Amino acid sequence: MTEPHSEDLLHIYPDAQSLCQACAEHICRRIAPGDQQPFHLALSGGSTPRSLYQRLATAPYRETLTGNPVHFWFGDERAVPPDHPDSNYRMARETLFEPLGIPAERIHPMRPLPEAMPGAASAYERELEQCLDKNDQGLPRFDLVLLGLGPDGHTASLFPDTDALEERHHWVTPVYVDKLASWRLSLSFPVLEAARERLFLVAGAGKADVIRQLFIEHRPLPAGRLLPSADTFWFLDQAAARELSS
Ligand code: 6PG
């Protein structure tokens, strides 16, 4: 496998391990060492990034994440307690925050409560307002947003057939996902689009069909609004990319 050009927007790696290593290297390149400016990183959830976070907690990546003022945010969260097995915060805490000893002031969990979702969304917006620079439309600018892809084409918790897809005013939006019968909190598209960079991490044969729908059939799926473009990178393993032509 020849290494793709460093600024190619779509990278395909032989396996999940090389994919994670490439993502870890890409993230650490973006965290400009030594300038001591806060780096605001939004984490994705689900199962795919677990091995990436575990890798980031090892040398040489851990030194970059601990030696620079990296702030850890979340692209979305399930409306469950922070110690629930489905919690994205719990997964990041176990794989990244605790192993790296990240101080609490650099960790920004979403705190969705099924009975108070609008309040939870507003609270996260206030935290974004306080901590992040704004672009010329007044939107908070993450330095890097990690994103995953669901088999239905959702990313973050912007699921098909939900009102969240059309949210253009709020930065953080509650989403009720019928098929999961559960609430989620998600960054909205305007905030994802305002980030300096987006990095999709997609692995496994289970994503080959949705990758084909997005890249070959150009189906209007939620993640299709963020296809490879300037500052939007897609990193796939061969299994997820198997239906793409060479
Ligand atoms: C979440 C994620 C979500 C995830 C996709 C893929 O909270 O579930 O943010 O967008 O990235 O559902 O999940 P897997 O990596 O588990 O396939």
Q: Give the ligands present.
A: 6-phosphogluconic acid
Q: Tell how many strands the DSSP assignment holds.
A: 9
Helical segment count: 7
Shape: globular
**The CATH topology is what?**
Rossmann fold
Poorly predicted regions are 1-6
Q: In which order are the strands of the major sheet placed?
A: 1-9-8-5-2-3
Order of helices and strands: EHEHHEEHHEEEHEHE
What does this structure look like?
The chain has 246 residues and is an alpha/beta fold. It has a single domain (10-237), classed as Rossmann fold, CATH 3.40.50.1360. Helix content is 29%, strand content 18%. The chain contains 7 helices and 9 strands; from the N terminus they run E-H-E-H-H-E-E-H-H-E-E-E-H-E-H-E. The strands form 2 sheets. A 6-stranded parallel beta sheet has the order 1-9-8-5-2-3, with helices on one face. A 3-stranded antiparallel beta sheet has the order 4-7-6. Strand 6 (172-177) and strand 7 form a beta hairpin. Helix 2 (49-56) runs parallel beside helix 4 (88-100). The longest helix has 15 residues, at 16-30. It is globular and about 45 Å long. The N and C termini lie close together (12 Å). Residues 1-6 have low confidence and may be disordered. The structure holds 6-phosphogluconic acid. 6-phosphogluconic acid binds at residues 44-48, 75-76, 88, 148-150, 154-157.
